[in-house]
């Protein structure tokens, strides 16, 4: 059977290579449950060749003048923007996100990050420091790249986190990695792999030397081999908490640098004085954008008990504006889940909320949304809202990574903050209030690395983002984001002409 896209192969040493394993898997269109392309799986020999190419490219790339690196990243950003709609169309088919989202967010914001780091390094952002200790001695520091880095996302079976943000995430990570002078291996998620080869070709067209950006396809065994490879100096992982802890342990045990972007169960606190419609709009964006497949989603919505009736009424009025349907229809703003296994997982949580947690189902549920007949085989769920939830419910405690909102009522803001922090996760949090003094007090108490006031979800290139607790290690983006791809060298220079010593003749 002819598939919509040609097979995706491996990309290393500046060109496409057929995998030697003889094995492949199919990536599936989530909207229709039909195959899109065959994806060739890398063998260990293929991985060794790709890492070898990255290792050979490192000495030259790490010594490439910063202004030259900056020009290449600027060119890559320009090429991404030129091909925005083309890339967005493929990503819509591969991830299930509506074209209204992929065409305005994924490539656009990824190109923004490339430009940010191109400007950063071109403007002296990697300059070291100089300190004069005394008249005849001084210290200078220098920032050096780490070596060959591994960037990957992992999707496992039950308990998975889907990576519907792969292209955006790949650009976030690779921009800082390459700007710092590292070379890299990228393993896309096996559920959204089509963009990997495209990014490699764009980087090559922009002037990135052969071997600097390489793409390997495969599942968990490929990721495990990459992580344990002795040549890999840094591992940047996006995925579920349990897998991330294993990856971090393995990498740190071999003295590799790590950045972990893991899961969340983020609280959104609506204060009693919040403007009602803004609060509801924020809660909906924090739960239903990207069909809920965003790690920073604010799925625990804390609402004052006094606002219960008004909040639920407004939410039910606005839920009609969540429009599932053909993904290239300009009216569609809600797509399917990214895979069959993830669909089963999300549905199982909704069923658990109804049958075991006994939460009140305000809207949504187990039935598929109203969609055309040709989409009914796809992995569609309704935007679902549970109310009258308690902190002990499974749907409240565990990351679902789907469009499932849990509303929890509270009597005082201090109580809401205390309950919001009662979790092992700490990725994101937010507050809606007209009182900015109160907003800052609440934000200061919330145990999360990414926080918002009177908004939700925006993460511009200038904003360093990363999780607390078990939600991650390190940050991405912003000035601090590039530090994770560098190591420091300090040198003390003595010009006195004499060496101080305690071993002198008495």
UniProtKB/TrEMBL annotation:
<dbReference type="GO" id="GO:0004029">
    <property type="term" value="F:aldehyde dehydrogenase (NAD+) activity"/>
</dbReference>
<keyword id="KW-0479">Metal-binding</keyword>
<keyword id="KW-0520">NAD</keyword>
<dbReference type="InterPro" id="IPR015590">
    <property type="entry name" value="Aldehyde_DH_dom"/>
</dbReference>
<dbReference type="InterPro" id="IPR016162">
    <property type="entry name" value="Ald_DH_N"/>
</dbReference>
<feature type="active site">
    <location>
        <position position="261"/>
    </location>
</feature>
<dbReference type="InterPro" id="IPR016161">
    <property type="entry name" value="Ald_DH/histidinol_DH"/>
</dbReference>
<dbReference type="InterPro" id="IPR016160">
    <property type="entry name" value="Ald_DH_CS_CYS"/>
</dbReference>
<feature type="domain" description="Aldehyde dehydrogenase">
    <location>
        <begin position="20"/>
        <end position="490"/>
    </location>
</feature>
<dbReference type="InterPro" id="IPR016163">
    <property type="entry name" value="Ald_DH_C"/>
</dbReference>
<protein>
    <recommendedName>
        <fullName>aldehyde dehydrogenase (NAD(+))</fullName>
        <ecNumber>1.2.1.3</ecNumber>
    </recommendedName>
</protein>
<dbReference type="InterPro" id="IPR029510">
    <property type="entry name" value="Ald_DH_CS_GLU"/>
</dbReference>
<keyword id="KW-0560">Oxidoreductase</keyword>
<dbReference type="Pfam" id="PF00171">
    <property type="entry name" value="Aldedh"/>
</dbReference>
<comment type="similarity">
    <text>Belongs to the aldehyde dehydrogenase family.</text>
</comment>
<dbReference type="GO" id="GO:0046872">
    <property type="term" value="F:metal ion binding"/>
</dbReference>
């Amino acid at each position: 059977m002819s598939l919509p896209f040609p097979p995706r192969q491996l990309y290393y040493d500046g060109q496409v290579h057929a995998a030697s394993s003889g094995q492949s898997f199919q990536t599936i269109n989530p909207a229709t449950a039909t195959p899109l392309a065959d994806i060739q799986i890398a063998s260990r020999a293929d991985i060794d060749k790709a890492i070898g190419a990255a290792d050979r490219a490192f000495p030259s790339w790490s010594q490439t003048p910063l202004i030259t690196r900056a020009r290449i990243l600027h060119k890559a950003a320009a090429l991404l923007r030129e091909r925005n709609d083309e890339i967005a169309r493929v990503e819509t088919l591969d991830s299930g996100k509506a074209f209204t989202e992929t065409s305005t967010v994924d490539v656009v914001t990824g190109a923004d990050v490339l430009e940010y780091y191109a400007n950063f390094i071109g403007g002296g952002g990697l300059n070291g420091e100089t300190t004069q200790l005394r008249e005849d001695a001084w210290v200078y520091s220098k920032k050096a790249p780490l070596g060959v880095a591994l960037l990957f996302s992992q999707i496992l079976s039950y308990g998975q986190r889907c990576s519907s943000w792969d292209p955006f995430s790949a650009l976030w990570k690779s921009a800082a990695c390459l700007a710092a002078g590292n070379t890299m291996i990228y393993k896309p998620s096996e559920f959204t792999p089509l963009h990997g080869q495209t990014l490699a070709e764009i980087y090559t067209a922009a002037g990135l030397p052969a071997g600097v950006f390489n793409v390997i396809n495969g599942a968990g065994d490929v990721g495990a081999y990459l992580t344990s490879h002795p040549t890999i100096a840094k591992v940047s992982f996006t995925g579920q908490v349990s897998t991330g802890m294993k990856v971090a342990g393995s990498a740190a045990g071999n003295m590799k640098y790590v950045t972990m972007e893991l899961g969340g169960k983020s609280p959104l606190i609506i204060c009693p004085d919040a403007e009602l419609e803004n609060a509801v709009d924020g809660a909906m964006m924090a739960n239903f954008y990207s069909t809920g497949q965003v790690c920073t989603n604010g799925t625990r919505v804390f609402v004052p008990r006094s606002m219960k009736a008004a909040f639920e009424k407004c939410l039910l009025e606005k839920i009609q504006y969540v429009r599932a349907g053909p993904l290239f229809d300009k009216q569609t703003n809600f797509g399917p889940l990214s895979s069959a296994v993830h669909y089963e997982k999300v549905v199982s949580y909704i069923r658990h909320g109804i049958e075991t947690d006994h939460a009140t189902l305000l809207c949504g549920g187990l039935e598929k949304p109203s969609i055309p007949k040709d989409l009914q085989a796809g992995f569609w769920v309704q935007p679902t809202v549970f109310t009258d939830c308690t902190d002990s419910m499974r749907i409240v405690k565990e990351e679902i990574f789907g469009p499932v909102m849990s509303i929890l009522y509270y009597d005082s803001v201090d109580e809401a903050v205390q309950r919001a922090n009662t979790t092992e996760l700490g990725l994101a949090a937010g507050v809606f209030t007209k009182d900015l003094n109160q907003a800052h007090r609440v934000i200061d108490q919330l145990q999360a690395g990414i926080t918002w006031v009177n908004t939700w979800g925006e993460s511009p290139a200038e904003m360093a983002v990363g999780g607390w607790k078990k939600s991650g290690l390190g940050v991405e983006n912003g000035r601090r984001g590039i530090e994770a791809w560098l190591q420091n060298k300090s040198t003390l220079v003595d010009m006195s002409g004499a060496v101080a010593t305690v071993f002198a003749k008495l």
